[in-house]
Amino acid sequence: MKHPSETGRRNPFSLKTTVALSIILFVTAVLTTAFNVKNDDPESPTKSALINPDSIESVKAFAQVYKVLMSPRCMNCHPSGDVPLQGDDSHEHTMLPKRGTNGKGLYAMKCANCHQPTNTPGLHTPPGNPEWHLPPASMKMVFQGRTPHQLAKQLVDKKQNGNKDMKKLIEHADDGLVLAGWNPGEGRTLPPMSHAEFKKAWLTWIQKGAFAPKS
């Protein structure tokens, strides 16, 4: 028979061991969750949007992207000044409308006065879109005059691109105004490649690391 003092002491470390294991499991779970949250960051290189970085392939894809962004269908709404550009030669808009604070015009001369929700029928008549506008004055997103290096850097800079992370940049390829570039109305040239080709190049540029060509 065991001494009464030995009662309940068959495994003196069982409680401590259980507590220690519980703490370890809790800490492991917290660290695992933190790791997964970090990897869900769209800007993290481990996110699917940025897998297998390849500077050569990324820069090569951006060369195609740049051709589209510098075409009149894109650049005309991304001028260096506050007056939109017009025509295949990218001259200043003949009525000299101004950007305005929100990009939709100034005073009574609003973009929507002439640019209706859909294209106006006829040769060289105003193209249309429900959201027709320039970038706002607070973030002009200038394409005109930008080198490939400058434009690539600008496109991934949240302070210059409308606060878009990599996920939002990918989604922007299907934005309504972007798509309008391939439906510009009669008498206007299309961008130098199809939207499907542009989107493929856009995604490749981003998913391979969004590298900027050398300056």
Fold and architecture overview:
Strand 1 (85-86) and strand 2 (91-92) form a beta hairpin. Helix 2 packs antiparallel against helix 8 (195-207). The chain has one domain (52-207). A two-stranded antiparallel ribbon has the order 1-2. The chain starts with 13 loop residues before the first helix and ends in an 8-residue tail after the last helix. The chain is globular, with a radius of gyration of 28 Å. By secondary structure, the chain is mainly alpha-helical. It has helices spanning 14-39, 55-69, 72-75, 111-114, 148-155, 166-172, 176-180, 195-207, and strands at residues 85-86, 91-92, 105-106, 109-110.
Describe the protein's topology.
Blueprint: H1 14-39, H2 55-69, H3 72-75, E1 85-86, E2 91-92, E3 105-106, E4 109-110, H4 111-114, H5 148-155, H6 166-172, H7 176-180, H8 195-207
Antiparallel strand pairs: 1-2, 3-4
Helix pairs in contact: 2-8
Please tag this protein with its features.
single chain; two-stranded antiparallel ribbon; 8 helices; globular; about 40% helix; mainly alpha
Question: What would a concise description of this structure say?
Answer:
The protein has 215 residues and is mainly alpha-helical.
